[in-house]
Structures are given as C-alpha cells and as structure tokens.
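Need Diguanylate cyclase GGDEF domain protein's 3D structure for a figure. Predict it.
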Amino acid sequence: MIPLAALLLLVIAFSLIYYAATKMPVVHLWQEYTLLSRYYDVTYLIIYLVIALFIYPFLYKKYPSILTNCVFYMAVTQIVAAIYLIALSTTYYNGAYNIAYFLKIIVYFIPFTCLIINYIFSYNSYLKTQGLLKINQGKLDYITTHDPLTNLHNRHGFEILLKKTITNNTKENSLFALFIIDIDNFKLINDTLGHVEGDHLLKQFSENLSLLTRKEDILSRIGSDEFALIVTKIASISSAKKIATRMLNQLNIPYRFGNQLLMATASIGIAIYPMDGKNTEDLLKHADIAMQHAKKSGKQSYSFYTKKYIFSIAAKPNLNPIYGKH
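Structure prediction for Diguanylate cyclase GGDEF domain protein:
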C-alpha cells in the first residue's frame, strides 16, 4: 500500500508541475536543455525513488513512528523537485516565474498530501492494533475461564455460566439440574500410577463425559477429579434420574493405563433449581453434599440432595486391576 500511495502522490505532483511548466502562459524568456544534460538530477531522482519505494517500507515495518514517516516525506519532496527540474530541462521555460510557482505548489501540496497519507496509515495501524487487542482479549478470556488439561470450563468460567443459567431459568420459571460428578478412587489411582497417568485418566474421562451431554448442557472441571454439569431445562426430577442412570452406566468402562486396564467409576450428586437452592453457592454446596452421600453409599451411584443427609468420609478403597497385563 505504501509504494502505491507514493506513486499516486508522484503522479499527481508531476501532473501539476507539468501543467505549471508547459501550459501556463508566461513571459517568453526561453532557454532549452536536454534530458541527457541533467545526469545529476536523474541520479538524484533514482536515489530518492529507492528510498521512498523500498527503504521506507522496510524501516516502517521495523520502526513505525512519525520520525520514520519523515523519511518518506523528505523522499517524496526531493522526488518531486527532481522531476520538476528534469521536466523544465527538456522544454522552454521562464526560470524565475516557474520556480516561484513550483515553490508555491511545494508549500501547499506536499505537506497536505503527506498529512493525509500519514492519517491513513495511522488509522490502518489503529484498526490493526484494535483487531490484535480483540484477539488477545479473546485468548485471555479463554485462558481465565477454561481448564488447560481438558479444555472444559474451569470453576471460574463455570460459576459465571451458572449465574447466567439461574437468571435465564428465573425469567422462564423453569427447572434445571446441577450434577457434581466425582471420579471414584482417583486419589489412589494418582498416587499409585503417578500424575501423568492421572492426567491421562482425567482427559479420557472428560472426553467420555462430553459425549454423554447434550449440546445445550454445560460441562466443567471444577476440581482435581470433580466435574460439574448443568442440565438445562429438565421437565421433571425423573428426567434428571434418567440422565444420571445413563451416565453411570456408560461411564463404567475400563481405562487403559500403560499395560493395564483399570475400572474407573463415578459418583454423582444432584441439586435441582430452584428447590435445592436459588444461587450458585447453595446449589454447588447442596450438589456436593449429595455427591458425598453417593460415595458413602458405596460409590458408582447418584444421589439427590435432601436436608436430612449426615455425612462421613468413606474408608480408603483398594485399587484392583480388572484385567491382566496386555
């Protein structure tokens, strides 16, 4: 774009100079020269063309500033001057009159045109910067609201979405269910097989869980081995029961750890909006209480929140391979 702008400026300037030098009626004090007699002006013109068309764009990419633009303005001014002198050297002219007219053009035309070009470049640079800021802001928003291991929403992103869901369901006077899903025996798996295999299990588990959710539902990882699922717009509690039963059955599959296949099951706690809570804190707390009750009841089960639950921490279970080595 910069070389095209420079060429356009030169064409306009040369047209004005040509008009001033050849078309305007002047006093006939003539003198004639040829182009080949002005080697200095031709060399001068080539040097500043190289500066304007090649050196300036290179400098501007590395050092975009007003000072760099001055190189362009200087080069254009010198190019116009060189063209003017060459044009006058190849025709009849009244030196005193045309030089005065040329200076008038230089004073008004060159600075004004260069200011317009600088404004265009600055505005384009501003738009480009704004575009980059939006892209970077989008990336930053994603990083702050998503879990890097599973690419699901993290706790911060989940709480934002849960608040929005509460607002929407309040307006529509509808139900939704909050599932807290915890991997059974995860700490033992992590301690026994190591964090790398533990992370591998979390990724596999989250992928399987994603396949079991509807497009409109919201799945998040809110803790080490804890996931939260917002099941939107359920018709009744029995709908949540069916979803929980299907999840437990389809999550109860073996996962590969190196040369072993291990069974990893899940426990699910469920809170229903608005009966079990009308804000994020109450819903998360009550769904977690229900999940703890499901674990206490033997794991690989689901439980709905009720006010009568009394909790105790289950004894640490054993980890047993379900298949031999492969």
